[in-house]
């Protein structure tokens, strides 16, 4: 080999090795423009095959293989909305849990895959990913438990099949994944232009177990006919007759703008609209003391023209900025200026985003900002004498058409509840767990609600469409009971002719009778569960901040336990303007007797009748000393007089000093005249 040939080979080798050092060509292209990119794109199915929209037998499109050709799906799947099931994902600050509600058994259990204190892992209760998706998929954008299959990602290689292709050979957890396909992250859930995506259709498809078809139907790209839920477990698509009664759902693409080379125009926005956020993150107070929805105002930032994504922003990794103080974003980027204090106080380098006014807080001692959060005065409904109930999208399914959005709809969430965290006061939402379970020693563990229903169906006798509370309170008075209470003459009177005192007496007797019926059922239910209890375990029932168990004499007693304590998570929105903030009317907003921020009452919500519900004041929940507060409050009524007295004393001292100054000036003037 000649010397020149060797030099050429060495040169090529060095340049080949140096290329990665100089920076590899990015696999995923970007525009780096503030304008939205026009998406004329090819659709691909779960097996990574290009779809012809004109084909009557075309399969549903896959967001993984379609969107993943240009966008890093692996990075996206690690984002906050999708990574709850990833063991390597940071749990982050505790937030709203998923609440498994079974009103037949009086159950409401806070669940989370993130392991937040006060929540339970679904798998520990025997709740499979399949069951979880079928219950909570209405407000899930896909991913997480919907795709936990032990198979490679389709975006690792543009030529390989999607997860559904390998799912048949995978060791899958319980469910019908081999028929439904995975519930992949649906990019269009958030990124379809406003009004172009239907979460309601998404939920319909999930209920039909059409997981792989849900993105196509919800985005309006095609009509989907058929239900996986109607197919038997042993259904084999490979041997099914093409026109038979049993077959996988069929997809018919229509009403699309399609180019000559079968590219489809999909109207996509880079920054999601507020509507996309509000579908999962709406919350509002409910109850008799609350006006209709149209009387309520949105967050002050929304009124100022800002969008959710202005503060809650992210990169391709979808590590959503949550906006709380001390947040460490997984991206490694500094996000201090996207918190309340960072933006409005100017403490961070980039404070004052979007022309945010600097919060001056004139007249408020600096100590307040060390022991109170911004949200304690500005977020959520203001504190009142009795903390009221609240509905949220995740807990109550807001955003879907329903006739059942009654204030008492389970689970019972109460807000605002003021609590200290690390010495700082924050407003919280709280929910009291309710469940049947085992107690071994001091440890309490809930039971799977479905297993409880199977075991206690004959005991609780809750009819279809009824709730445990509704069944227990649906009691009637016998003629003898009514006569004994009201007298023979008044007992015959119609309801509308009874006095308020008589009606109250009837209500009290009905409540007493419902309570007695609940006690009888509770004893019978615990006896039934004792037959199924593991060794060294005792059946218990948790509700309304109490734990119920049978004693040695057979009677049921209640006691307190950490497992019965409410799960609480901080509130950030809706933010109230300065004129509506707590404290704007002066110190007495907080530093007076019966001030709601400290003396407001919080009553535990139970799923069963409770004659003595657990009650506490905001002060007790926050952990403040009552006597210290009341002693401090005593000083405030006299403060104006003290201030006026101080000003008067200052004026007297000033006049005395002025008199001496004038006398001094006269003396100096006399000396000057003698000179």
Question: Would you kindly provide a written description of the structure presented here, covering whatever features stand out?
Answer:
By secondary structure, the chain is of the alpha+beta class. The chain has 4 domains: 39-237 and 246-270, no CATH class; 276-432 and 568-632, no CATH class; 435-565, no CATH class; 643-675. It has 25 helices and 18 strands. The strands form 6 sheets. A 5-stranded antiparallel beta sheet has the order 7-8-9-10-16. Strands 12-11-13-14-15 form a 5-stranded antiparallel beta sheet, with helices on one face. Helix 17 (449-460) crosses helix 21 (500-530). The longest helix is centred in the last third of the chain and has 36 residues, at 639-674. It starts with a helix and ends with a helix. 32% of the residues are buried. Residues 5-23 and 150-172 have low confidence and may be disordered.
Short description:
With about 675 residues, this protein is of the alpha+beta class. The relative contact order is 0.09.
What attributes does this structure have?
675 residues, five-stranded antiparallel sheet
How is the secondary structure organized here?
Layout: H1 3-22, E1 39-41, H2 63-67, H3 73-76, E2 98-102, E3 107-111, H4 129-136, H5 163-166, H6 177-180, H7 188-191, H8 199-207, H9 214-218, E4 222-225, E5 250-253, E6 264-266, H10 274-281, E7 283-286, H11 300-303, H12 308-311, H13 340-344, H14 368-371, H15 375-378, E8 388-392, H16 393-396, E9 413-421, E10 424-431, E11 435-440, E12 443-446, H17 449-460, H18 468-473, H19 479-486, H20 488-491, H21 500-530, E13 538-543, E14 546-550, E15 556-559, E16 567-570, H22 596-599, E17 601-603, E18 615-617, H23 618-622, H24 626-634, H25 639-674
């Amino acid at each position: 080999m000649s010397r020149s040939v060797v030099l050429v080979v060495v040169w090529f080798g060095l340049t080949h090795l140096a290329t990665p050092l100089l920076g590899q060509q990015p696999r995923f292209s970007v525009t780096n423009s503030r304008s939205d990119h026009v998406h004329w794109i090819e659709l691909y199915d779960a097996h990574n095959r290009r779809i012809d929209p004109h084909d009557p037998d075309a399969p549903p499109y896959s967001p993984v293989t379609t969107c993943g050709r240009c966008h890093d799906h692996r990075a996206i799947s690690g984002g906050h909305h999708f990574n709850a099931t990833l063991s390597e994902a940071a749990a982050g600050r505790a937030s709203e849990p998923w609440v498994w509600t079974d009103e037949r058994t009086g159950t409401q259990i806070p669940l989370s895959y993130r392991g937040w204190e006060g929540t339970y892992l679904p798998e520990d209760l025997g709740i499979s990913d399949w069951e979880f998706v079928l219950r909570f998929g209405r407000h899930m954008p896909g991913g997480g438990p919907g795709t936990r299959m032990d198979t490679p990602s389709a975006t690792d290689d543009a030529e390989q099949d999607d997860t559904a292709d390998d799912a048949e050979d995978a060791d899958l957890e319980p469910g019908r994944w081999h028929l439904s396909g995975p519930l992949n992250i649906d990019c269009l859930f958030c990124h379809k232009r406003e009004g172009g995506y239907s979460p309601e259709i998404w939920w319909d498809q999930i209920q039909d177990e059409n997981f792989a078809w849900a993105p196509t139907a919800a985005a309006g790209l095609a009509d989907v006919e058929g239900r996986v839920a109607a197919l038997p477990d042993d259904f084999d698509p490979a041997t099914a007759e093409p026109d038979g009664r049993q077959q996988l759902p069929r997809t018919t693409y229509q009403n699309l703008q399609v180019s000559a080379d079968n590219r489809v125009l999909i109207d996509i926005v880079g920054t999601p609209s507020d509507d996309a956020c509000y579908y999962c993150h709406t919350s509002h107070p409910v109850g008799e003391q609350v006006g209709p929805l149209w009387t309520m105002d949105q967050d002050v930032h929304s009124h100022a023209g800002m969008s959710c994504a202005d503060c809650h922003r992210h990169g391709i990794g979808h590590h959503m900025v949550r906006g709380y103080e001390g947040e460490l974003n997984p991206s490694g980027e500094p996000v201090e200026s996207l918190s309340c204090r960072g933006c409005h106080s100017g403490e961070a380098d980039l404070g004052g985003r979007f022309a945010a006014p600097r919060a001056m807080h004139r007249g408020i001692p600096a100590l307040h900002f060390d022991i109170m959060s911004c949200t304690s005065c500005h977020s959520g409904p203001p504190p009142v004498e009795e903390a009221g109930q609240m509905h949220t999208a995740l807990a109550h399914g807001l955003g879907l058409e329903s006739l059942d959005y009654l204030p008492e709809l389970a689970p019972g969430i109460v807000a605002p509840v003021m609590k200290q965290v690390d010495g700082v006061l924050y407003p919280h939402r709280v929910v009291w767990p309710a469940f049947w379970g085992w107690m071994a020693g001091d440890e309490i563990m809930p039971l799977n609600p479905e297993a409880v229903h199977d075991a206690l169906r004959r005991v609780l006798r809750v009819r279809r469409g009824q709730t445990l509370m509704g069944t227990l309170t649906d009691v009637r008075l016998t003629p003898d009971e009514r006569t004994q209470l009201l007298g023979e003459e008044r007992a015959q009177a119609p309801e509308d002719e009874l006095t308020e005192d008589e009606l109250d007496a009837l209500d009290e007797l009905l409540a007493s009778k419902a309570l007695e019926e609940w006690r009888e059922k509770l004893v019978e239910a615990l006896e039934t569960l004792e037959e199924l209890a593991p060794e060294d375990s005792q059946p218990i029932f948790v509700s309304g901040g109490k734990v119920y168990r049978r004693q040695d004499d057979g009677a049921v007693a209640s006691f307190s336990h950490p497992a019965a304590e409410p799960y609480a998570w901080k509130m950030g929105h809706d933010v109230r303007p300065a004129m509506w903030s707590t404290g704007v009317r002066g110190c007495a907003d907080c530093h007076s007797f019966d001030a709601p921020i400290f003396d407001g009452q919080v009553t535990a919500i139970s799923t069963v009748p409770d004659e003595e519900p657990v009650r506490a004041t905001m002060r007790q929940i926050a952990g403040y000393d009552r006597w210290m507060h009341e002693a401090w409050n005593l000083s405030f009524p006299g403060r104006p007089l003290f201030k006026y007295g101080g000003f008067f004393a200052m004026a007297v001292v000033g006049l005395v000093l002025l008199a001496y100054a004038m006398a001094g000036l006269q003396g100096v003037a006399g000396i000057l005249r003698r000179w």
